[in-house]
Write a structure and sequence with these properties.
heterotrimer; A alpha/beta; B mainly alpha; C mainly alpha; B: ABC transporter involved in vitamin B12 uptake, BtuC; C: mainly alpha; 2 domains; two-stranded antiparallel sheet; 11 helices; 2 strands; globular
Chain lengths: 371, 400, 309
């Protein structure tokens, strides 16, 4: 009997070892973001982008002789779930992480990644503190931060549209309120315009007519709104229905085709900032067509940013020749990588050099870049 | 199993009813963004078949004769197994304790974290049990005290660099104060009015935290909340998780002890009297005001303590962590466990918290199954897992 | 900062007032469902907000189909509303049978938890069956040209909402006071056992209550969806809590109380936004609730039930 058990144990040990040895033969990429819940439309395209890039790379033979494996985890953009997700990914042995999607969730998870020396790159977390505070040396991103967006919006309103009475609104969320605070600060600093109103609206409320009337009373010439497209379209339609032609300027949460489709004719003339237009770039065209072939429809939000982030991360591993934290970090700072967003590398704080924002306007039912 | 024609007929009609009921939402998918309509008739067929089978099963279950079951061999053998189990209960208890103690070294940090979260909810459930289960005061805003504890620690640490251990008693006292603050206006309210006011209170706290940026940093929350220092040891993720686990284990034991003692104390009996009949209780000379306030304050204390631990564990808090849904889940834990029963609350907390985590595999259907389970558990066992049995005093057979 | 001529101030006040009435009417319509169900089985039906949402989605589907086949305008509006009301009632009826009827004799908290679970279930059910995105809702209420003059102050949709609420409340009051069914419902609410003894079918009365309440919620859903222009599976949650607050504010169990509570709540929120800040509008609403309940523990026009030992 004991002989049998000995053999059985030996067999198990062998299997166990071979499995772990086999597992060590892959490069593990963690992909974290909102894949369920109401912000899933912001997270699913990124997961798809990572998969497409990794499939390519594996077809070519992998990196440093090893295959790349993708581990996807859902955090529904909630900070407490994000910490769970981070722990889970670490338990799975990821070497680098592409994510998270929302700034709040990213902030929550970064502490854990930092402790474990895991490089994290986000395609969409735009909160400036993430790179500017210096608290997260392991964080990089392929999108410009919110203060750049706010500055662009304010400069455009004051210098291009020559406005001097601006109402700043937000959705009381981390992203929206952050942008609004920056916008207010920049307007006050410029001394060329007044913030006639600064308010937060409650997302999901039954109606917004009271706030809209307040905007009207304040005689603002434009509204700068920080938030996402559902509330933006409710505000814009409400304002236009009350015959208000207040200019509406918003952020990349609103620069989304869904906004136009939901607000329909009321979307006409709305300004929004978004990542620089790279639709002519050959890699962009290739990535977009791949997505269409694989999934049947156009890629959604942050697809190109995620595509670029994945390329950058894996390229850094390849160029540095290892999966060690310091080596990858150095490679990200020094090596350029060709992505749909352009030829980029990362500065000391973690922001991508060469990635910025432009202003767009809805003309005839689609966003057009304003030069 | 005999299927009577009657039950087949009624199951059939029930299936038809559900097919018709869910027809618009399940079959027709209208996308007004893309201006397209997708018809998915196969969903309707599946729904019909499933409902038919379920209805049939339910009818059969209703008709099962209890005596018939008792005669079955399977039932007898299960009963025998259960008896064997119970006779070894002391050994099982030791094994479970053993597993609990060595658990952190057997599994990954992720699993430890989940277990710690479950234990936090156990204590929260026991705390709310004091308010709802013992004193009978329906509190739908319990999460407010949780938030007070968490933000209390985070802000104290941020502004004054007070470390975790010093902050704990302060958070407890602060929450107790808030408990009394909530208690005063609601002294005269009964039942569901009390419920809505407590719900409002919970929402007010959350909204103030969200909007008063200067004080609470608003929606961006507070990050880098330090974990409790362990006397000079270097903490990384693994050791910190393990430490948290043991800390929570001790808290759970402490709470069980305290709640048990409270239940059997004078104030505990006053609460039970209050729950049973408020007017009679007052007629008996129990001070209603003091009793109610004490219930709120003590319940809040536990929530505050857990809030501080929660903040230290996740190192990042924001107002979105403290919504009404949290209160609802904690309330469900108390009700599901059987109001007033400590073991029941523990089991219910483990089920309600661990279930969504382990259901991650189902990702999209997770919350759906969660909601359905809540309904099913209530329908099939409304008195809770372990229904409350009042103490019985039996005369001993030995003459004194 | 604001130009402060008297007429401007007055106009602003009137606009806020009308805004508040509109919002309040929506709360009132949903609150009626809460209050009726509470009056008859003393249960806070948390799933009621979801029934409102299902009504809106059903109307979306119906109007989507009809628009595709070329119909438009008022015919779509009425058809969508009737079908939505029908389906919501069916959902209300079914939910009552599954989740509340078995718990009728259970401790008071069990049906509450069941309701919360049902609410979560329905939210996710609609999200999975349809979509998690925000769906634009066609504005089914046609533009009335005659209102063009005061259009900047109050539009067609707002007027329709107000009129509907008034009509509904009047209709419901007539139903409760003067019809046989109304009498039976009142009897069931007062004392179930006695009602059974005098021959009232309790189960039927309860079902009818749910049906009427759900239909009203569906009407509210269609109206608000046309007004706001988009819907999503989560709208029921917030609307539900607000409406529930309104019902309690007015005195839960009382039908005029629900309407009064809804209007008071809507007006408070509107004025709070207009004169203070939109940030704290919910805080004002709940603070108002607390204050009113301190002074009048049974709500504004709630029945004072004497407690018997």
């Amino acid at each position: 009997m004991s002989q049998f058990f000995l053999k059985l144990t030996a067999l198990f040990l062998l299997l166990f070892m071979s499995v772990t040895l086999y597992a060590a033969e892959t490069i593990n990429l963690g992909v974290a973001g909102a894949h369920s819940g109401d912000l899933a439309s912001y997270g699913i395209p990124s997961a798809r982008a990572a998969k497409l890039v990794v499939d390519h790379i594996n077809d070519r033979g992998g990196i440093l002789g090893k295959k790349v494996e993708v581990w996807t985890e859902d955090d529904a953009c909630k900070p407490e779930l994000a910490t769970n997700t981070a722990t889970r990914l670490i338990s799975k042995g990821v070497h680098v992480v592409m994510g998270h999607i929302c700034s709040g969730a990213t902030k929550a998870a970064l502490g854990i990644y930092k402790d474990m020396n895991i490089i994290t790159m986000s395609p969409s977390a735009t909160n400036p503190d993430l790179t500017q505070s210096g608290d997260y040396p392991n964080f990089f991103r392929t999108i410009a931060s919110d203060d750049a967006q706010a500055k662009l919006e304010v400069d455009f309103a004051i210098n291009v549209l020559k406005l001097n009475k601006i109402a700043v609104l937000h959705d009381k969320g981390d992203y929206g309120k952050g942008l609004a605070e920056f916008a207010r600060k920049f307007i006050q600093q410029s001394k060329k315009a007044d913030v006639v109103l600064y308010e937060g609206i409650t997302p999901g409320a039954v109606d917004y007519s009271a706030v809209i009337r307040k905007i009207k009373r304040s005689k603002a010439q434009a509204v700068i709104y920080g938030g996402y497209h559902p509330e933006a379209s409710k505000l814009v339609s409400g304002m236009r229905k009350k015959r208000m032609d207040t200019i509406f300027i918003s952020d990349d949460g609103v620069k989304d085709d869904t906004f136009i489709k939901v607000a329909k004719k009321y979307a006409e003339g709305v300004y929004a900032t978004g990542p620089k237009d790279v639709s002519k770039h050959p890699l962009t065209i290739k990535a977009t067509s791949e997505h269409k072939n694989q999934y049947g429809d156009d890629p959604g939000a942050f697809f190109l940013n995620a595509y670029s982030a994945t390329l950058a991360l894996l390229n850094a591993i390849e160029k540095s020749g290892s999966t060690q934290y310091a080596a990858i970090k150095k490679a990200l700072h020094t090596e350029f990588v060709e992505t749909p967003l352009g030829n980029i590398r990362f500065d000391q704080r973690g922001d991508a050099v060469g990635v910025g924002f432009s202003m767009y306007q809805v003309k005839n039912g689609s966003y057009v870049e304003v030069k | 199993m005999r299927f009577r024609f009657q039950s087949i007929k009624s199951s059939f009609w029930i299936a038809i009813w559900f097919m018709m009921l869910t027809f618009p939402l399940i079959v027709i998918k209208v996308n007004t963004i893309e201006q397209e309509i997708i018809w998915r008739f196969q969903n309707m067929i599946w729904m019909g078949i499933c409902i038919f089978l379920i209805a049939l099963l339910m009818q059969q279950l209703k008709q099962i004769n209890l005596n018939q079951i008792k005669g079955l061999y399977i039932y007898q053998s299960l009963k025998h197994t259960k008896a064997v189990f119970v006779s070894y209960s002391r050994q099982w208890f030791i094994i479970v304790c053993f597993l609990a103690i060595f658990f952190p070294f057997l599994v990954s940090a992720y699993q430890i974290n989940i277990m710690t979260t479950a234990m936090i909810y156990v204590v929260l459930g026991l705390g709310l049990n004091i308010v709802v289960g013992l004193a009978g005061l329906l509190d739908l805003g319990y999460v407010a005290f949780y938030a007070v504890g968490a933000y209390g620690y985070a802000l104290l640490n941020y502004h004054y660099h007070i470390n975790f251990w010093l902050a704990l008693p302060f958070c407890a006292m602060l929450s107790a104060l808030f408990g009394v603050l909530l208690g005063f206006p609601v002294l005269r309210l009964r039942g569901d009015y009390l419920a809505i006011v407590t719900l409002g209170f919970g929402e007010i706290i959350r909204l103030i935290l969200e909007n008063w940026n200067d004080f609470s940093f608003g929606p961006s929350g507070i990050a880098h909340i330090p974990r409790p220092p362990i006397f000079g040891w270097e903490t990384n993720l693994q050791t910190a998780s393990i430490f948290m686990y043991y800390l929570m284990g001790l808290m759970v034991l402490f709470t069980i002890f305290m709640v048990n003692r409270l239940q059997n104390s004078r104030i505990g009996r006053a609460w039970i009297a209050l729950r049973e009949d408020e007017i009679a209780c007052q007629a008996m000379g129990i001070d209603r005001t003091k009793t109610k306030l004490l219930a709120f304050a003590l319940g809040a204390t536990w929530a505050g303590l857990m809030g501080a631990i929660f903040a230290a564990k996740t190192t990042f808090i924001n107002p979105a962590c403290f919504t009404f849904l949290e209160s609802a889940i904690i309330l469900s834990i108390v009700v599901l466990g059987g109001m007033g029963s400590i073991l029941g609350v523990m089991i219910a907390a483990f089920i309600l918290i661990l279930l969504p985590e382990y259901l991650r595999a189902f990702s999209e259907y997770r919350m759906l199954i969660f909601g359905a389970s809540m309904v099913l558990m209530m329908v099939f066992r409304p008195q809770g897992l372990i229904s409350h049995m009042s103490k019985q005093y039996l005369q001993s057979s030995k003459q004194s | 900062m604001f130009s402060d001529t008297f007429s401007d101030t007055l106009l602003y006040f009137i606009e806020l007032f009308l805004s508040g009435l509109t919002r309040g009417s929506i709360y009132a319509l949903i609150a009626l469902g809460y209050t009726m169900v509470y009056g008859i089985i003393e249960l806070i039906n948390f799933a009621h907000g979801e029934i409102y949402m299902i009504g809106a989605f059903t109307a979306l589907i119906v109007s989507g189909i009809m628009t595709m086949y070329g119909y438009a305008g008022l015919s779509v509006f009425f058809t969508a509303m009737i079908i939505a009301a029908f389906y919501s009632s069916a959902y209300g009826y079914t939910i009552e049978k599954i989740a509340y009827k078995p718990l009728r004799h259970s401790p008071r908290l069990s049906p509450l938890i069941s309701a919360i679970g049902m609410s979560i279930f329905l939210q996710n059910y609609v999200m999975l069956a349809q979509t998690s995105d925000f769906m634009p809702f066609p504005s089914l209420i046609p533009d009335f040209e005659c209102l063009a003059l005061i259009d900047y102050m109050i539009g067609g949709p707002e007027l329709i909402i107000l009129i509907t609420t008034v009509v509904v409340m009047a209709g419901l009051s007539i139903l409760i006071k003067f019809t046989r069914i109304g009498k039976a419902m009142r009897a069931t609410a007062q004392d179930k056992t006695m009602a059974m003894l005098v021959g009232v079918d309790i189960n039927q009365m309860i079902s009818i209550t749910f049906i009427i309440g759900s239909a009203l919620a569906a009407v509210a859903g269609v109206l608000i969806a046309s007004y706001v222009g988009q819907i999503n599976f989560y709208i029921g949650f917030i609307a539900g809590i607000k409406a529930f607050t309104a019902a309690v504010l007015g005195g839960i169990g009382s039908i005029p109380g629900a309407v009064l509570g809804g209007l008071v709540l809507g007006l408070t929120e509107s004025f709070a936004t207009g004169y203070v800040s939109s940030d704290y509008e919910d805080v004002f609403a709940f603070a108002l609730l607390v204050m009113i309940l301190i002074v009048r523990p049974s709500g504004l026009i709630g029945r004072k039930t004497t407690q018997k030992v």
